[in-house]
Structures are given as C-alpha cells and as structure tokens.
Amino acid sequence: MIPSLVIGSLLLLSSNLYATEMAEASLKHFSSTSKIEWQHDLGPAQEIAETNNRPLLLFFTATWCGPCQSVKRTTMQDPSVIRELSKNFVPVMLDFDQHRFLASQMNISVVPTIMVLNPSATGLLHKVTNTSGSMFIRELQTAKKMHGEERTIKKTGLSR
C-alpha cells in the first residue's frame, strides 16, 4: 500500500513539475518574442483571426515610402508593441503596390495606413492615427476595447 502511495505521489509531483516547466518555457518564448510575425495575405490571416477571435491589424506600406520604413524601424521594433500585437492581434503587412485593388476597396490612398478590422474583416474597429511608441499602444488598446464591445453586442444581440 505504501509503495503505491509513494509512486502515486512521485508521479503527481513529476507531472506538476513538468506542467510548470512547460508553462515557464511557453512564457519565456512569449516574452522573448523579438519580432512581429507578420502575415502577408489577408485570406489566411482572416482565418487565423476568426479561429483565435482576434482583430486584424492591417499595415499598408510600400518600399518607396520613407515614413513606412521609419514606422517599421521604430514603432514595430518596440518590445511593448511587439508584445501587444503578438498577444492580441493578427498583424498583416500589405504592400500597397501589390494590393492596390484591396487598398482602393478600403479607400486607402496614402501610406502608411494602419487599421484594425474585426476578425471576419467585415468591419472597421479603429483607424490608427498615431504611430509613436506609447500613443500607438493606446491606439491598439482602443481597438482591442472596441473588439471586446463588438463581441459583447453580438453575444447579447443588442445593437448600437
């Protein structure tokens, strides 16, 4: 009786240790994410967003656009921005020249343009107007809040 109790306790202890190690490893991976995992095609990105119930962040950019390159080098390299986007959004970087039709459908005529859409890409949640560090984080939080409100409205069946 005692040996099986000891073995059971050891198994429970080892499984708890394993679970703790796995959680810590996952947390380390998340906290050490050093870059944004951009999607470059709206179709697959939309599937990911719908599956994970996360809003889409669309970043229309161009190789010839100086301000776009500046946003990529500064804001999109900020660790807090990387964390926020990785945790709460499906980030999609779209080249304006390659996606002109989509840009025109969304009334985008200048770059950089950053907007947040609901997961099904059918509604604009927020258009980002400030890309400087902490202000950009606030804009993302506003979009996240609007996504939460939209989900609540859909759940309760209320309309605005």
From TrEMBL:
Keyword Transferase: no
Sorted UniProt keywords: Redox-active center, Signal
Signal peptide: 1-19
Domain of life: Bacteria
Cited PANTHER family: ANTERIOR GRADIENT PROTEIN-RELATED (PTHR15337), THIOREDOXIN DOMAIN-CONTAINING PROTEIN (PTHR15337:SF11)
Stated name of the protein: Thiol:disulfide interchange protein
Organism this protein belongs to: Polystyrenella longa
